[in-house]
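Model it.
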Amino acid sequence: MSAPDLDFSELTALFINTTLTRSPATSHTQLLIDASASIMAKQGVRVDGFRSVDHPIASGVYPDMRAGSGTTAARPRKSSSGCMPTPGSSTTAASGSTTDGSAAA
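Modeled.
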């Protein structure tokens, strides 16, 4: 039995590395991301990513807390991704779901 031909060329995965280690220092989380991203890339998925600690991302949920934060820069990357794994976090947003089955924000 042969595997079906699957085309992932239109899918983009955005990895948000939530390590506390700033770039360019070695991050063990990045090693895990690299392994997963390599598997995805071999299947034709476009892969993008960044370390959240390197950006001034506000942790609040109110609009005034986002002003001037890194969330503005990350939003277009998130919006264009079909899959957004976040190693180091308990939540992975992919197709609008989280690892606990609740809806992703």
